Amino acid sequence: MRIVLKIGTSTLAHETGRLNIRRVEELCKVMSDLKNAGHEIILVSSGAIGMGVGKLSLHKKPEDIPTKQAAAAVGQCELMYTYDKLFSEYNHTVAQILITGEDIENTERRTNFENTMRRLLELSVIPILNENDSIATEQIVIGDNDTLGAIVATTLQADLLIILSDINGLYTADPHKDKNAVLLHRVEEINPEIEAMIGGVGSKLGTGGMITKIKAAKMTTAKGIDLVIANGDNPSNVYDIVEGKDVGTRFIAKKVD
Ligand code: GLU
Questions:
Q1: CA atoms of 44 and 29, how far apart (whole Å)
Q2: Which of 36, 151, 156, 177 has a CA-to-CA distance to 140 between 20 and 30 Å?
């Protein structure tokens, strides 16, 4: 299977912005193992701004754009250093690709991106993508990595997109407010009833929330790709998701010819 795994900031970093070492080590181990088992792995990793916040001791996510972009530049290095080191322990090679909205909208650049990605996969590399936060401006920004994950999965005709976050999946109501809220394991169709279950909350350091995840699910399922939203706090869940077990919420792909 060709698997795109999107990891949110809340999964990678503590609230301080510092790396969640145990979590990231376990995730890299699971991804390495899945790769050894014959799967292709593409990682979409957030955390550049979050880790920059930690490394620059900024105490909270900056609000002004230059500081955000500076934090991303610092944090992205830290992120790639960490992935390179951990995947190397399992003899896997990683590559960094940073893109913006323009790279997707411009046909030539999109083709270039696609060709590079395909070549990296042929070379058995694990591509690690993020938005190029240090140069992206409002006009050209993709904006969030759930959407980036869906763009990558659809462009490369992946078999599965997994989004790991600090939530278990989609609930019938807000589980923090309603104790009768039930986790939905399978969503066959994103209809108005499902849309009504979406809350707008995100974490302190991350960007998305359920809205961007559902948007990503609409994009992938329309192209015949399942999307699973699951909690990143237990990395071995990823094995179960790949085996098709009920973990988190699975948005079932539409049949495409
Ligand atoms: N690109 C941002 C970062 O790495 C995160 C965007 C997102 O989480 O959606 O900090």
A1: 16
A2: 156
